[in-house]
């Protein structure tokens, strides 16, 4: 008997501006300040990263992985 897969995987990447701001300050404080200000203004947009869904089917040794329609992240999923 061969084992088969029939599942869905959900990937919800988190994006943080902290690393980018710290790197910008290390390179150039003026650029760092600009990146920090932009991160405060654009922060709500960064939290709306798409949720990726994949359908995984077929035998365990040769699964078929297909991307399902992307959906915007809802406020309650943060």
From TrEMBL:
The keyword Transmembrane applies. It holds the Pfam family YhdP. The keyword DNA repair does not apply. InterPro entries: YhdP (IPR011836), YhdP_central (IPR025263). The chain crosses the membrane at residues 15-38. Residues 2-65 form the YhdP central domain. Keywords: Membrane, Transmembrane, Transmembrane helix. This is YhdP central domain-containing protein. It comes from Salmonella enterica I.
